[in-house]
Amino acid sequence: MVAAFYALPFYLLGLWKRVFLYVGLILQGAYIISRGLHLGRLPLVGPHDTLIFLSAAMVAFSIPFNRGTKEDPALSRGISFAAMVFTALGILWQPHNAPLPPVLKTLWFELHVVLAFFSYALFGIGAAIGVFSLRRKDVYHEALQYRAILIGYCLFSLSMILGGIWAYLAWGTYWLWTPKELWTSIVWLFYTLYLHARLMQGWSGRPLASLGILGFVVVMFTYLGVSLFMKSSHTF
Amino acid sequence: MAAKAVIRFFVSLKTSLWLLCLVTVLLLAGAFIMPGEKAFLSVHSMPLLDWMRQQPVKSTWWLWATMGLLLVLAANTLVCSIDSIVKKRKVTQWMLLISPQIVHIGFLFMLIAHLASAAGGFKTFAVAAEGTPLEMPDNSVLQIKQIAMSFDSYGYLYDWAVDVEYRDNGQVLKKDRLLPNKPVFHKGVGVYVKDLRAFPSKMVLLEVSREPGAVWALVGGIFFMTGTIALLVLKMKREETQTQP
Question: What is the edge-to-edge ordering of all strands in the sheet holding B122-129?
């Protein structure tokens, strides 16, 4: 908990110098590993662990994207800000230390969740690049956003497929009609729309960058909103 | 003339975008309708199409509309793929041409899977104790031999196992063990443990079900991921050469 807490000021300082962002990431990574060792499982259950994991994943995945925007620190500032917000929110929640029910003790679950959060992180980076791209209006940043979203989409699809296999083995069906699954389909359709819109003339520039930003709003509602405001057997 | 207009409609990327938009909007509507409608509490109790026919349209209109639009989207996907292959068949980078079509095939398989499960699934539930015989759809008998549960010092259930035997005319056909995330299958019918109770006597809630779309969904998933990963690698390579800052 302390390491996660100490990551916060470094993310704040990351708004000024990028190197602090990476120090925050190291602290957060150490916290995630120590929690995993303590619990004897992947610490990815409940809002505390998932928010901290999301924030670390966003910073880690932003490293190669930051390299392409060295001359302008706006992207790393956006990532710093997001990491700070997610970490602060994560600290507000109590960590989930109870043992997992037997159905969650499987590699299918771990892969499903890890890939989902990796994809959320990449969609977040896509949105941050989108904000950046709205200001700069160049082809390079549009391509960078596309790359983040395409990799995110690939991981997200894989996460859904693995989740389907797990659900079939655990509950007898690869698809459950729960609000979380419905919202997950909305996210998937939305990014499918983004990827196809890029092939159309007239969508380049502002409309595509805005779609990438809006997509992350849908992702955040699917992740936090559905779990907090809607009754579903499928939560964090 | 009319045939040309229909083909133009189905071959257009604009049609795909509109359909994706409309399906997204319908699912959004459903996402807000579903949690507030009590009818959805029973959605998993029977195949989806049977369930939809029994429910009032005011609860399920968005599902009917989504299904209709997905059928149009399936036709659009198929026509676009065929058109793309026919028009670009002479390109040198055939992997770049074929990868999106593999993704599309995967998507179509997934739609077929959902349709097969919605139309031809089968599901029933039973509560059973040790020794209880249950008649299966193929007239064989599933007998619960042993229910084992392990609790930790805080009283949390951390593991369980249910031993079963399939019998036919008194003869043992097969012995198997149900574990978390490991159902048992016999002649295409799966048996799943949905819940367990330790007190006052050991009992299990079993689901006996057949999901005809599962294999289609798996095949679809494999196609989809193969195409997506191939496309990702090819696009990244191409973008790298095109968009150096």
Answer: B122-129, B203-210, B189-197, B184-186
